[in-house]
Write a structure and sequence with these properties.
Layout: H1 2-26, E1 47-52, H2 67-80, E2 89-92, H3 101-112, E3 116-118, E4 121-123, E5 131-135, H4 138-141, H5 148-153, E6 165-169, E7 172-176, E8 195-197, H6 200-211, E9 217-221, E10 240-242, H7 244-253, E11 258-261, E12 268-271, E13 282-283, E14 290-293, E15 302-309, E16 312-320, E17 322-325, E18 339-342
Parallel strand pairs: 1-2, 2-5, 7-9, 8-10, 9-11, 11-14
Antiparallel strand pairs: 1-15, 3-4, 4-5, 6-7, 12-14, 13-16, 15-16, 17-18
Helix pairs in contact: 1-3
Length: 343
Amino acid sequence: MRKLKLQVVTFFLFFLTVSGIVVAGSIQNQICEPVISTNEKPSNSDFYFVHITDTHVVSKLYDHQETRKHWLISLLDYISSFDKPPAFVVITGDLVEWGEGFLGVLNYYAFTSCFYKNNTQFYADKNCTIPVYFTPGNHDHYPNRQLYNYHLFIDMTHKKDHNCYVVTYENLSLFFMDSGPVYYAKPSEWVDSLGYGLTKDEISWLDEKLSSCTTNHKIVLMHHPAVNIRNKNGGLFDVFVHNRENFIQLCEKYDVDVALAGHTHEARVFDAEEYQYENLAINTSNYPALFVQSDDCKEGVHYRNISIVGNDIWIEPSKEVNFTFFNDYKYESNSEIKVIYNK
């Protein structure tokens, strides 16, 4: 009997391993359809992008209705259908509920199936006109604090750069960084959901990139925020720990417009003095560096537009979309989802 149980366990592990290899290979073949329109966007036109965060997608093995996967597919379909679509989409971490191990492979397969892909670039739409950029979150590190599956499925290009990279669009530069796994050093602070933070090398990278930046506007993106509310003992909730103050100083020194984050599952806007701004939209040109958190896509479907209007960046309110699905509808691809949008 013991031998039989061992054989069953061995077969199950072998099946998961083979399945992981198969699905990891299959996502490389999801090629976008050709772009139909040949109209070129004027280089000096205004634009906006969409911030999504904390999608926490789970494999059908645990999420039998694939609710979070369908929420993400529907949200991408929704924002792609706007009369004026966004220039791009950013997703700041906790892409999946847990990222490592065999189950992490299955979770990432479910997550990546929500997108279109051309070579190494992910897109929100089938015509490959709305690129999507990512940063990892602490859940993507779970459970062994590594990012093997994140690199395998999402971004192998920037692995050697500690997941740091820059994207420039017109007169805007975006600096993507990894705020690390959960910070476990002080058990008394575990309830505060702190992130490990940035290494000295990553701070040096940001200093060098910001100092050499030639665009008018600069936005830094990572999973954990640098500024947030405090607990009753005066400690900060949900922020990252290492080099937090150095990061804030760099944002102020180089006139960063926005540091954009998720993790808190809340929509909040602060300045470096921890003053919270309640009334949005807000023009960042009238303020020092702002530290912005957007709401999640785990407990609801949220997104935030960041608009560039002339020489100004506007932080718009976080929005929630309620999707009502046909119970008997079979989801097959991003472009075939049929939903009712209740704004």
